[in-house]
Design brief:
Length: about 140
């Protein structure tokens, strides 16, 4: 069943560079409502499981090292057509290819340090949200 929620992380590069507030602002200005929000640092196992689908890829170890390198914001966001609209808002994985005005075009420096995560399907949005948040942490 289609849902109207997606899951996001503001990644360590964006937090480190002081962009988290502006990025959250761009998300809410685009119509996404914050349902759950957490400021935390990922452990190696957590980051590895989160990106487990990429375990065999050559960039996997660098990805885990990067995602555990500093604190992140994790959030569940709600909006009509949330998953697709949020992927449009953040732009292409490689910021060099991200459309003008997208979050990655504005705030990301490279394909590995690309500022934000956005779920790629309703199913994964559900799995990822449940990975980080209990029912008592959603409003
Ligand atoms: P995310 O899942 O973080 O929202 P995405 O869905 O746009 O990003 P994925 O294909 O799921 O892209 O890749 C997950 C992450 O792995 C990317 O955000 C990026 O940081 C890293 N990554 C992907 N492809 C490469 C690559 N070719 N070289 C280095 N890092 C990569
Ligand atoms: Mg992805």
């Amino acid at each position: 069943m289609a849902t109207n929620r997606t899951f996001t992380m503001i990644k360590p590069d964006a937090v480190q560079n002081g962009h988290a507030g502006k990025i959250l602002d761009q998300m809410t200005e685009a119509g996404f409502k914050v349902i759950a929000l957490k400021y935390m640092q990922l452990e190696e196992t957590t980051a590895g499981n989160f990106y487990g689908v990429h375990r065999e890829r050559p960039f996997f170890n660098d990805l885990v090292t990067f995602m555990t390198s500093g604190p992140i914001y994790a959030a569940i966001l709600e909006k009509e057509n949330a998953v697709a609209d949020f992927r449009t808002l953040i732009g292409a994985t490689n910021p060099a290819e991200a459309a003008e005005g997208t979050i990655r075009q504005r705030f990301a420096k490279s394909i590995d340090a690309n500022a934000v995560h956005g779920s790629d399907s309703d199913e994964n949005a559900d799995i990822e949200g449940n990975f980080f948040f209990s029912q008592f942490e959603r409003f």
